[in-house]
Design brief:
The protein has helices at about 20-30, 45-50, 70-80, 95-105, 115-125, 145-155, 165-175, 195-200, 220-225, 240-250; strands at about 10-15, 35-40, 55-60, 85-90, 105-110, 135-140, 160-165, 180-185, 210-215, 230-235. It is α/β, with parallel strands linked by helices. It folds into two domains: about 10-130, Rossmann fold (3-Layer(aba) Sandwich), CATH 3.40.50; about 135-250, Response regulator (Rossmann fold, 3-Layer(aba) Sandwich), CATH 3.40.50.2300. The strands form two sheets. It has a five-stranded parallel beta sheet with strand order 2-1-3-4-5, with helices on both faces. Helix 1 (about 20-30) links the parallel strand 1 and strand 2 (about 35-40). Helix 2 runs parallel beside helix 3. The longest helix is centred in the last third of the chain and has 13 residues, at about 240-250. It is elongated and about 70 Å long. The termini are close together. The relative contact order is 0.12.
């Protein structure tokens, strides 16, 4: 878990297809929002969740059994506690736009919508406390070209990378800057990755910093696990795998 945690709020995803909720969630996760995601399969289920949970925004499909998206929003607008919650309606039926607006839908997105369409809808209408935060990651390897390659491969919106070319340089960086995670090579001259990790884990507040290891050494996974490392990736690593693990660890902190 990140040592720089912030309180999260909830976004409710409403769609009768689990696959579509997964797609929407993946799109939102790529925006690095500071939120938890709750899910409902149709309007009545969504109202049950809204009755018991504090929700900062609702993203709903239009076509659903029992209670569709417009009916859900109409019920929300009748309830004083729910009427101010911003809602995004996603639909492939263009003719529903006017009905959606009359019902009180905040934003209407027609399928297929772009990633930027979703980002703008969230940025302009949802509470500011869920907006994407920035993350600073420390990259440690004794070969400068290697950390530069890692930086390019792991490039993501709102992620900044600071490079250190030795364990000693990494330690100095930790004392100068606030980091959300560290990615380090395992085998390095002078002070290796294992000794660096041991020092970090023994020194508050750095001991709570999520650490990821990149190594070809067969003994690295076992030793790293004993030291509390989040994950070990082989060389060459899969950028998508590392990105997903980083986001999973930091966004769920």
């Amino acid at each position: 878990m990140s040592i720089f945690q912030t309180k999260k709020t909830n976004i409710l995803l409403v769609d009768d297809f689990q696959s579509q909720r997964n797609i929407t969630k993946l799109s939102l996760q790529s925006l690095n929002l500071n939120v938890n995601y709750l899910e409902a399969g149709q309007g009545k289920e969504a109202l049950d969740i809204l009755a018991t949970e504090l929700i900062s925004g609702v993203i709903t499909d239009y076509e659903m059994p029992i209670m569709n998206g417009i009916e859900l929003v109409q019920e929300m607008r009748r309830n004083p506690r729910l009427r101010s919650i911003p809602t995004v309606m996603i639909t492939s039926i263009k003719s529903t736009e006017e009905s959606a607006r009359q019902a009180g839908v905040t934003v209407w997105l027609h399928k297929p919508y772009s990633q930027n369409d979703l980002r703008v809808a969230i940025q302009n209408n949802f509470p500011k406390d869920i907006q994407a935060r920035s993350y600073k990651i420390l990259l440690v390897d004794d070969v400068e070209m290697q950390t530069s390659i890692w930086e390019k491969l792991l490039s993501m919106p709102n992620f900044t990378f600071i490079k250190a070319n030795s364990a000693r340089e990494a330690w100095n960086c930790l004392k100068q800057y606030t980091f959300d995670a560290m990615i380090t090579d395992y085998l390095m001259p002078d002070v290796d990755g294992m000794r660096l990790i041991k020092k970090v884990k023994a020194t508050p507040p750095f001991n709570k910093l999520p650490i990821f290891v990149i190594s070809q050494d067969e003994s690295a996974p076992q030793i790293a696990s004993e030291l509390g490392v989040i994950a070990v990736f082989g060389k060459p690593f899969n950028p998508a795998e590392v990105k997903n693990k980083l986001r999973e660890e930091l966004l769920n902190a």
